Amino acid sequence: MFLRTTVLTTVLVGSHLGEALVARSGSPHASPTLTASFETPSYRYSSFSYTQLTSDRYATPLPSPISFPATFAPPFSEASTLLPTEVTYTTYSLNPTTTAATESETDGYGQQAYAELWASLSYSSAPPFTTTVSPTPVPSSELVFPPALTPYLANPEKKLPENFIWGVAGSAWQIEGGLQLGGRGPSILDTIGALQSNDSASDANVATMNYYLYKQDIARLAALGVPYYSFSISWSRIVPFGVAGSPVNTEGLAHYDDVINTCIEYGVTPIVTLVHADYPPSVVADMGNLSTHYLYYAKQVMTRYADRVPYWVTFNEPNISVGSVAKSYSILKDILLAHAAAYHWYKETLGGTAQITLKFANNLALPLDPTNSTHTASAQRYQAFILGIMGNPLLLSEQIPSEVLSTPNITIEALTSEELATVKNTVDFISIDPYTAQFASPAPEGIEACAANSSHPLWPSCATLTNVQANGWLMGEASNDYAYIAPQYVRQQLGYLWNTFRPKGILVAEYGFNPFADANRSLNAQRYDLERTLYYHFFLREVLTAIHEDGINVIGALAWSVLDNDEFGSYANMYGLQTVNRTDGRFERHYKRSFFDYVDFFHQHIAS
């Protein structure tokens, strides 16, 4: 039954409520007479007809090819003279039965030595491809936008700069596959795939087969209108034995040369990372000489590709490499010096004009209770360890934080004045991977007691970290792993970086969300990934606010990741903006709705 009536509603304005009522009625307990009226809707019947609620809107492809006003460095024909003269250029083919009798080289780097690199690693899954797959046009049926989410994606009142860097990111080991093909040597990550080789769903030897499908992957980015693609080069594909003076793999050089050329052909700007966690084992065994080994590799890559690459990332998330790459904190100093060596060689010897950075991991630590000084100290101490060790010398020309150097049994020494001078100002902007934030409080025993005990599980930062607020609420919507939809902390993360390290600009080099149990859903359900859309949309709205209201120079944002990939041994954590069918033999890709929404956001918010 519909009730049509005029409703009387009390309107009480101001801070003198009691006085107003007394003045009107003579008694503070009398019924108020200060009223306003409004009409309820007028309900009615009419004839019904179906309304079209969807429309076929198509993605706009990139113009191609891309052209730069000038090259970013001399072409290889000129730069090749900068390379060492006594380098062996060859390629390898893995044959586990190779013996000394068939060994032709005497320098210890022949086919037998190459086979021995792989002697302890085997894989259950074999790549279904043996050559690069030619790209095919993306059908228009794949480029239809999903149902619109008005008003969620209709708020373009604030604009991003016209030159804002936006696109997607991936890394070699996580998507390429073909670990033992193309003359590649092993990396320290390869044991993950080998140890799990009884589980074909996580076999890194297959991954998503980007090594052979890269042309199609780049074509798919261009068809959707994605202008930037950040990818990494596998060190051990270029230098299979890893170390300085060992042979350089011509097949690896040709592969990445074609990856970059394919990007340019399709109108996609390449952003190249030199190391994304996949160090050659021989280099990790000799980290004290990292600069020598790294520069040997970096020179081979940069001399060939630098004329076409406007952005270089020397190391991915080196600030969290303690434990995953080496146990000693001294690795951070080794990486700092290796990064600086490559920066100076590129800028001063090669004469390159591209911008160079390295990429930090950091989910900002905030005090669990901001009114508690020990919680604030815990957050600051955590940040000193996770960002200050490398950020202070790089961006502030300052020493490693005192709270780090004064920690008992810490295995890192202060930088010398010469080392500080070498390292300072060797990033052109800061890059950060801020997936979420977290709350910090002291270790139960207190910071001082924890710091004195190097066997304590929270040593050396001695911060207890949680994503649960002090009042018991989660900080946001949890993912399958550690990411959270918690946009309220994006501006604090950016503000911390901007006001603490005062960089020229900030690139959000990775951010993403992996919905809970996504791998168990149907293809249609995986594609309609509303949570991921909301994560990116809310995150980017806060980036806009940080730019316009906080005055922070955010220069770009790159989504993780280009495809559902191998998240270091697991396909359960699916961060990709595209699905991959790893059971059809073709590794067919499908765009997710979040990819369309992501592109749409930038088309609405990039200033023209």
TrEMBL record:
<dbReference type="GO" id="GO:0008422">
    <property type="term" value="F:beta-glucosidase activity"/>
</dbReference>
<dbReference type="InterPro" id="IPR001360">
    <property type="entry name" value="Glyco_hydro_1"/>
</dbReference>
<comment type="similarity">
    <text>Belongs to the glycosyl hydrolase 1 family.</text>
</comment>
<feature type="signal peptide">
    <location>
        <begin position="1"/>
        <end position="20"/>
    </location>
</feature>
<dbReference type="GO" id="GO:0005975">
    <property type="term" value="P:carbohydrate metabolic process"/>
</dbReference>
<dbReference type="InterPro" id="IPR017853">
    <property type="entry name" value="GH"/>
</dbReference>
<protein>
    <submittedName>
        <fullName>Beta-glucosidase</fullName>
    </submittedName>
</protein>
<keyword id="KW-0732">Signal</keyword>
<dbReference type="Pfam" id="PF00232">
    <property type="entry name" value="Glyco_hydro_1"/>
</dbReference>
